Amino acid sequence: MRVMLDTNILISAAVLSSSYILLLLDELVERHTIVLSTYVLEELNRVTLKKFPGKSAIVEHFLRELPFELTFTPENIDPSEFPDVRDLKDLPVLVSAIEADVDVLLSGDDDLASLDMELPTILTPRIFMQKYSLKYD
Predict the structure, then answer these.
(1) What pLDDT does 137 receive?
(2) Which end of the chain has the smaller Cβ count within 10 Å, N or C?
(3) Is residue 80 classed exposed, middle or buried when 0-12, 13-18 and 19+ CB atoms within 10 A define those classes?
């Protein structure tokens, strides 16, 4: 399965070292294909510099070690061609997931998670683990 990660998932893993998210990433690396978009990587860098100064080297190391497929986010997005999102900053993430033809978009963002879409399926990490993980307790 192809699984795209949102910025909040990467921050939880790389910066906050959330054991739950790190377990999820282990599962993804072992059994699925991780997809990251250029938009998410740019946002990750911006958020890290702004909210977690001094953690950039940790994030860079994390990304070097994480196997992923890179997809490019379109620069010009017409919002009328895609499902409505409350926060327009979420639109490039959603468009990237659609354009990359991923099966699942993992996000902790309630606005994205509330969208009713067939593909990609938008799930929180916990719901993903409940549905697909053999290690989930």
Answers:
(1) 47
(2) C
(3) exposed
- pTM here is 0.90
The label of the residue with tokens 């890179």 reads 70
Q: Per DSSP, which regions of 54-125 are E strands?
A: 69-71, 104-106, 121-123
Exposure pattern of 41-56 as b/e (b: 16+ CB <10 Å)?
Answer: bebbeebbeeeeeebe
**Cα four-point dihedral sign 59, 65, 66, 71:** positive
As a residue count, the chain comes to 137
pLDDT, mean of each 10-residue run, the chain (137 residues): 96 91 92 97 96 95 97 90 82 94 91 79 90 63
Count: domains in the chain: 1
Decide if 58 is inside a domain.
yes
Q: What is the CATH number of the domain that holds 76?
A: 3.40.50.1010
Residues 79 and 123: their CA atoms lie apart, in Å, by: 22
Residue with the two structure tokens 């699942």: 104
